[in-house]
Design a protein that fits this description.
The chain is of the alpha+beta class and about 180 residues long. The protein has a single domain, classed as 2-Layer Sandwich (Muramoyl-pentapeptide Carboxypeptidase, domain 2). Helix content is about 40%, strand content about 20%. The protein is built from 6 helices and 8 strands. The protein has helices at about 1-20, 55-65, 90-95, 115-120, 125-135, 160-170, and strands spanning about 35, 40-45, 45-50, 70-75, 100-105, 110, 140-145, 145-150. Strands 2, 4, 5, 6, 7 and 8 form a 6-stranded mixed β-sheet that branches. Helix 2 runs antiparallel to helix 5 (about 125-135). The longest helix has 18 residues, at about 1-20.
Length: about 180
């Protein structure tokens, strides 16, 4: 009798899985953009995709070594709709793989802002030069005036980047209240 019950359960499982399209075996996708905290960061709360967190740790380590503070001015932003237009230059932020920043000295004074970075003045400031060349050596992409990202979005075709943006934005959209 026990063998019959076990056989029946196995057969039922074999037939139910295809019928339910693997419903019982699938894992629901969820938003992977989370808050990141680091001692060498200030400014806006950092929201980033979990795959970008190791890069943020590297950025923090370089900042500490160069005696600067990364003042975050922008990170992941939720769009009004997942398909909203986003400039190519802003795509790393829309998918949580980048931050916009200024550099501050240890006392909180501005060391290098977007104007400084655009004009290449950072190359003449030892701490800023240390930081920007340091993050680049770690494989982090610095795009003027003030964007740090992991370069992953730049490797995608435009349609693939749009798909990724829409997917992440949908998964991370605030849930409508139940009621």
């Amino acid at each position: 009798m026990l063998k019959f019950a076990i056989t029946l359960c196995i057969l039922a499982g074999i037939f139910l899985i295809p019928i339910t399209n693997g419903f019982f075996l699938t894992k629901k996708e969820k938003c992977e953009v989370t808050a990141f905290k680091g001692k060498d960061f200030s400014g806006e709360k950092i929201m980033a995709h979990k795959l970008f967190h190791p890069h943020l740790k590297s950025i923090g380590a370089v900042a500490k070594a160069c005696k600067v503070q990364v003042h975050v001015t922008s990170s992941f932003k939720q769009l009004k709709t997942p398909n909203d237009f986003v400039l190519t230059s802003e795509m790393p932020l829309a998918v949580g793989h980048g931050i916009r920043f200024d550099l501050k000295d240890p006392k909180g004074g501005t060391l290098c802002n977007p104007l400084c970075m655009t004009s290449q003045s950072w190359k003449t400031l030892s701490e800023a030069n240390c930081f920007i060349t340091g993050v680049q050596k770690k494989g982090i992409k610095f795009t003027q005036p003030n964007l740090l990202d992991d370069g992953q979005v730049g490797k995608l075709s435009s349609p693939d980047a749009e798909k990724l943006k829409a997917q992440i934005q949908k998964l991370c959209a605030p849930k409508a209240p139940k009621g």
